[in-house]
Every structure is written in structure tokens, then in C-alpha cells.
Amino acid sequence: FLEYRPVGKIGEGTFSDVLKMLNLRDGKYYACKHMKQHFESIEQVNNLREIQALRRLNPHPNILMLHEVIFDKKAGSLSLICELMDMNIYELIRGRRKPLPEKKIISYMYQLCKSLDHIHRNGIFHRDVKPENILIKQSTLKLGDFGSCRSIYAKQPYTEYISTRWYRAPECLLTDGYYSYKMDMWSAGCVFYEITSLQPLFPGSNELDQISKIHDIVGTPAKKTLNKFKQSRIISFDFPFKKGTGIPPLVPNLSPKGFSLLCAMIKYDPDERIAAHQALQHPYFQELWQVISILKIKIKKWQADKPALAMHKKVRLLGNPAGQEPLHLWQIPKERQRQ
């Protein structure tokens, strides 16, 4: 830890403090996540889900980069050194009056779906997707804080702490731990609404109020959906039928395609909810695909031209264009020239 000097505090969570650190070796700034928990051994550190997940998921352009893990056995303290980003989505929209341009929202949502597609393909789901855990640096978005993540293949029910209430999917609220990776898509849908309207979609004051706020907008679920949930719940529940008002019209800068994607992300039934890989194919991102495909063509062309360019340079050098000195063969002793 001697190689780092603390510069200031970035934030504080339930399980950790985040500090801005200067690396005295390379002169760069990093984010240091200092865990509040006491660790006994390196085995306990290596078994930490967050470390396992980041090692498996890095490197990816939309996942926060883990640079190193510092474990002080004597003190039992653990710190994760990660890349330093500019701000999180919450800080970006907090106190903002003017909505973000839709082009920026499209880019951010595409990158968020890219990060979720990557983690889900790698058998991990995040469980705490919210504006505070989505980090940005200029035009790049990265998903961070994997402290609550789980394996998609782990045996249900999941028991311990999960996701912040406002971004919690119905299956998390209504079952005793019977939920899976689709919960991340619900949370991402709530974030999508929030960065577009600058207002939270379901700001429930407690779990019951949370369900009530969801039903006010989305409506009560179909019988078959409720029956699925009931199989995984100790307490029985029934809701009086409610149609739901639909998504509030606070999103004037959201195009019909964007509205269609948002509705697909906040489907009540997780089996009907859009997956990250499907979301990336949604027409909302059509303009981005065109930009990406043009870039891919340019990169391919550049890669194809590179060997030809290198050969051209060699030819020019051997061809000895005017003004260049000839190859100094005369400097090499005659007996060595043949070797």
C-alpha cells in the first residue's frame, strides 16, 4: 500500500469506502475500494465473489477495470484498486434541469446492455444495477460494484441482501429468493427511465409501497405470472385488479423506439422480459449499429492495408530513394559479409 497515496474520499457504502488514490509508481489516479470487513486469509480474499467476478469479466470496455488486489494479512484489510471514472449516473442527472440529448442516452443504454450481455454470457448477474453503480468517463459507460453479484447457475433460493428497493424487480419483491439474471434487465429499465426523465420510475418508501407503485404503472400481473410467483412464496398474496396508467409521460425526448425498448425491459413476468442480447438488437439502437458497422469496415480496411503499407516502407528503404545514404556494407569486414 506504500505505492499509493490517498487524495480524497469518493464515496461510502454499506460494505466499503471508496477513495481516490495516487499511484506513486506511474503517477496515475485510481479508485480504491477499501472493504470494511476483516479478512483472515488469502483464501478468503480469493473466494470473494466480487474479485472472482471481476477477474472473469475483465477486460471488457463496459466493465470497470480491476488493476490490483491489496491484502494486508497483519491488519486483515482488503482493498481493490480499480480504474478511476469521472462520475456515476446518479451524479450526472442529480439536480439537472435539462434532459440529456437522446443520442447520448442511446449510447449509454447500448453500453449498459453490452455490459449486462457480457456478464450474463459469463454466468454472472449483478443484482444491484442502479445509477450509483453505473460509472462514466467522457462518452464511455462502465458497470461497477460487483459486491452483490451471483452465479446464474447457483441453486435458488438466494437469501442474502440484494438490490436497492427502487430498482428491484417484482420477482425479487414477491418471491423468497426465486429470481435470476432477468432482474438486471428490470433494473436497467428503471435506470433508462431515470436518465431520460430525470425522475425515478418506482420510488417506493417500503416493499409494500414498492409493489403498489409498480402496479400503479404496469398494472397487476396476469394470473399465470402470479401463480408462478406463488409457488416460490411462503406468504400467500392476492392483489385487487389494477389496469395501470402506463409509463408517465415525463419523457418527451424519448422516441417511440426508445419507449418500446423501455416497455420490454419492465415486463412484469421475467420470462416475457427482454434479455440483454435481445435488447442490443432492438431498433432503438439502429443508428448506432450503422456507426459501428462503418467503424468495423474502416478497421478491417486499415488492418488489410497495414501489411501492404509495411511492405511499401521496406521497398522504399531498400530502393534507396534520392538523398539517402547507401547501405553501409563497406563498414562490415569482408569475411563477415557472407554470414
UniProtKB/TrEMBL annotation:
Reaction equations catalysed: L-seryl-[protein] + ATP = O-phospho-L-seryl-[protein] + ADP + H(+); L-threonyl-[protein] + ATP = O-phospho-L-threonyl-[protein] + ADP + H(+)
Enzyme class: transferase
Cited Pfam families: Pkinase
Compartments, record wording: Cell projection, Cilium; Cytoplasm; Nucleus
Keyword annotations of the record: ATP-binding, Cell projection, Cytoplasm, Kinase, Magnesium, Metal-binding, Nucleotide-binding, Nucleus, Phosphoprotein, Serine/threonine-protein kinase, Transferase
Family: Belongs to the protein kinase superfamily. CMGC Ser/Thr protein kinase family. CDC2/CDKX subfamily.
Name the UniProt record assigns to this protein: MAPK/MAK/MRK overlapping kinase
Annotated source species: Tinamus guttatus
